[in-house]
Prior knowledge:
Layout (H helix, E strand, L loop, with lengths): L31 E2 L10 E2 L2 H12 L18 H12 L27 H11 L7 H27 L10 H9 L12 H40 L6 H4 L1
Antiparallel strand pairs: 1-2
Helix pairs in contact: 4-6
Amino acid sequence: MSSPDNQEPFSPRRGYTHKRSEEPPRNTQGKMICKFQSTCANITFERRCEWSKHMDKHDRPYKCLEPGCEKLQGFTYSGGLLRHQREVHKMHGGTKKALYCPEPNCKRNSGSGFTRKENLSEHIRRVHRRTTDGSEFAAQAQNGLDHLEAAAAAAAATEDDGMNTDGTERSSKRKRDDYLNGGDDLNGDFVHEGDAVKRLKGENQELKDRMKQMEDSMRQQQSMLQELLNRQQPIAPTASMVG
Length: 243
């Protein structure tokens, strides 16, 4: 098994490199194999670099040697160690400009912020209970709208029960007879179903309007967040720009 002692000094061009001193084991066909664990028994490698890269997943040879990281599990590749050193120890020029939560009352709106965009997105989803496109909130609002529409439909069905087959309203006497024969109006006042339906329809429309306003607000917040992220995390130079 490899040791962090074989880790070569950091190079700005190549980062960290790790060389294995041991010879890879081979099977009867002469192909390189992994004996680290039984689940790798059927894996073979044609080239030494492939075998070495596979073994890095087991050994995690890229260790941080900074004070306080003695018990930290190593990394499987050089880039992981470099990112850790930049973000935690501010080495190699440190991280890019920090990303902050767009919620004004959030403690992560200032201070150290986030070093990676995906961490900020996860924070917004987990802490503020919404996605950056507002889809979770829209789903909740739609659910409430569905309940209102169902209530309106039920009220409309009740109104239909108070009509004759030709569409005219039944007489007050027949309504009163319905009540005396076991109707639900315990106060003796006959419910005006038409008014209830109008009220529910009005509430339904009001909720639709509010949901549209909130969706517009969510889209605006999404646009502002994306603009903020673009400003805080400039695009990395391409190979052609570097060359």
